[in-house]
């Protein structure tokens, strides 16, 4: 442990020296989702993204070529799979991360252990923490990352593309007939989302009514009996993997649920709606089509 600590101190000193070197570029600043202003003496050139969603957002901001470290399950875009991994979002190899000499770390507010982010900050690394919880926040996050990376032209264009795509869906479905929906975000334990969760906002966007929308927790645990009692007209689930719909199988055993009786059991590839990235537009479009299918069966 002592040797590791000494190596971290040495690496940290090297990073500090790099930051203290004179630069010609103008300072760039942005406020993260904890309310902290992060300023860089020059746009970031070596970025560490500490969640799969952060990795996607950095690429969306036009700075993918600057990513030098990711965590497990950072599988989109394909180029992200070639970037060195420094562990998982809950257990990072801090020594390995420091060896890669990032000049900006993108943290996850509720996903990364606070003590690890604090350790990185103590070692002199700028940590920009994100957690977009609305569609507009997704666009705004892309714009802030583009500002920090000096890729405003590409990043702001992508943010606006997403913003306009969501706006079109809002117009299309604002008068849609409501569909009671249960969205299953996890299987064991059985979990869903409330209306404050970004997935809950996808349900509302598409004219759905989240049958568990008024629960207090963002991602509450529930029982199968609660789902049966709520009697949703449509059940949508992600599952483990982009093509694995086995989470829906359990509901086929309950023909008394309206969703089962009408065969409104729909699979949604999880990465399209469970990561707060521009791909949520594609996921929302698919989600809306599933609810259109349910309406057509009335």
TrEMBL record:
<protein>
    <submittedName>
        <fullName>Cobalmin ABC transporter substrate-binding protein</fullName>
    </submittedName>
</protein>
<keyword id="KW-0732">Signal</keyword>
<dbReference type="Pfam" id="PF01497">
    <property type="entry name" value="Peripla_BP_2"/>
</dbReference>
<feature type="signal peptide">
    <location>
        <begin position="1"/>
        <end position="25"/>
    </location>
</feature>
<dbReference type="InterPro" id="IPR054828">
    <property type="entry name" value="Vit_B12_bind_prot"/>
</dbReference>
<feature type="domain" description="Fe/B12 periplasmic-binding">
    <location>
        <begin position="46"/>
        <end position="298"/>
    </location>
</feature>
<dbReference type="InterPro" id="IPR002491">
    <property type="entry name" value="ABC_transptr_periplasmic_BD"/>
</dbReference>
<dbReference type="InterPro" id="IPR050902">
    <property type="entry name" value="ABC_Transporter_SBP"/>
</dbReference>
């Amino acid at each position: 442990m002592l040797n590791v600590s000494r190596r971290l101190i040495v690496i940290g000193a090297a990073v500090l020296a790099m930051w203290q070197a004179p630069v010609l570029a103008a300072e760039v600043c942005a406020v993260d989702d904890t309310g902290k202003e992060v300023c860089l003496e020059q746009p970031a050139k070596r970025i560490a993204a500490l969640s799969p969603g952060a990795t996607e957002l950095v690429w969306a901001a036009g700075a993918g070529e600057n990513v030098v470290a990711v965590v497990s399950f950072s599988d989109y875009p394909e180029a992200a799979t070639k970037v060195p991994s420094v562990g998982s979002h809950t257990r990072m190899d801090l020594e390995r991360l420091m060896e890669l000499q990032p000049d900006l770390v993108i943290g996850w507010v509720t996903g990364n252990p606070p003590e690890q982010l604090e350790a990185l900050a103590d070692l002199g690394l700028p940590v920009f923490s994100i957690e977009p919880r609305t569609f507009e926040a997704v666009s705004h996050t892309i714009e802030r990352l583009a500002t920090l990376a000096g890729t405003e032209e590409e990043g702001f264009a992508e943010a606006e593309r997403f913003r306009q795509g969501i706006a079109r869906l809002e117009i299309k479905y604002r008068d849609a007939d409501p569909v009671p929906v249960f969205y299953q975000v996890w299987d064991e334990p059985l979990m869903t989302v409330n209306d404050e969760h970004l997935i809950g906002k996808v349900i509302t966007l598409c004219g759905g009514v989240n049958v568990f929308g008024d629960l207090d927790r963002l991602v509450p645990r529930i029982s199968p009996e609660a789902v049966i009692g709520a009697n949703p007209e449509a059940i949508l689930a992600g599952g483990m993997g982009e093509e694995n719909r086995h989470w829906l199988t359990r509901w086929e055993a309950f023909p008394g649920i309206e969703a089962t009786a009408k065969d409104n059991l729909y699979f949604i590839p999880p990465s399209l709606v469970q990561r707060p990235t521009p791909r949520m537009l594609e996921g929302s479009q698919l989600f809306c089509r599933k609810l259109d299918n349910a309406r057509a069966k009335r």
